[in-house]
Amino acid sequence: MDLKVGLVGYGYWGPNLARNFNDLRGVTLAAVTDQRPERREAVAARYPATRLFDDPVAMLDDADLDAVVIATPVGTHHALGVAALERGKDVFVEKPLAASSAEAERLAELAERERRVLMVDHTYVYAGAVRKIAELIEGGELGDVRYYDSLRINLGLFQTDVSVVWDLAIHDLALLQFLLRRRFRTVQATGGCHLGEGLENVAHITLGLDGDVQAHVNVSWISPVKIRQTIIVGDRKMLLYDDLEPDEKLKVNDRGVVFDDEERPTLLRDYRVGDMWAPRVDRQESLAGVCAHFVDCIRRRARPLTGAAEGVECVKVLETAEWSLRHAGQLVKL
Fold this sequence. Notes:
Elements lengths: L2 E6 L5 H10 L3 E7 L3 H10 L4 E3 L2 H5 L6 E4 L6 H10 L3 E5 L6 H14 L3 E4 L6 H11 L6 E11 L8 H17 L3 E9 L9 E8 L3 E8 L1 E13 L3 E5 L7 E9 L11 E8 L8 H15 L7 H19 L5 E2 L1
Parallel strand pairs: 1-2, 1-4, 2-3, 4-5, 5-6, 7-10
Antiparallel strand pairs: 7-11, 8-9, 8-15, 9-10, 11-12, 12-13, 13-14
Helix pairs in contact: 1-8, 4-5, 5-9, 6-7, 7-9
């Protein structure tokens, strides 16, 4: 029997989710709700068999639906998620999980009590390049990871409900969770609003993690160029991940500083310069992997890779970063 999925929101990201769920074998995009008539018309043109609703509550009341996908502004995630979970639906939520840690924890507790699958769309975790990075780290190719540096900048898309931290830095929090499996310990953030909208459009975030790992995340909506680059430095090798590179998204560099002689003066340290190689990565669309994983978790009643716990932790770090932004970049211990 097909798994029947209902989608809330057919705006920017909703069409991508609709396409990927509709393409999965054994899944039916049974219903879509959006308050805008033109968006419902767009659904009808592409998915004529899908039932349309202008009221999300009416769709959630449909007993035939097995799961609900929420692709609406973050401020609505909590209310919609609670309504879906209370009606016995498994729930998939666009990132971030909720607008506050209290709301995120409420969703996590409700999903646990109702024994429902609750998953967050941390899309990058399911990218082939990121899976390969995880494989390299777990296999010891980089050695012990010491440093993570990310540049995630572009011109827009400007959000009206959240700052650039909640919009873009969330991706790096999810990647750090997945790749390093270490707890966040400290958060410090600076940034600014430059267009008068009251929300930060530039931010620089420094994160401390277990094991003396440090991460820097630079995010911006007001850059003349779009860049998606991440550097991960281990004590054996270093890695560059360029998500916009069409062919060689990953480059592993056998470079580093030799620290094997503590008696040697610092200025005489040796530098190791070896080969660079580009690992082969899976080119499947990341979102296809996300949607397939959600469906698999429903069928197996399994805990998602990016589930409630991961969603709650990310929201807590986002909240803390925002507090630091508002208080002149104060360092906050978690």
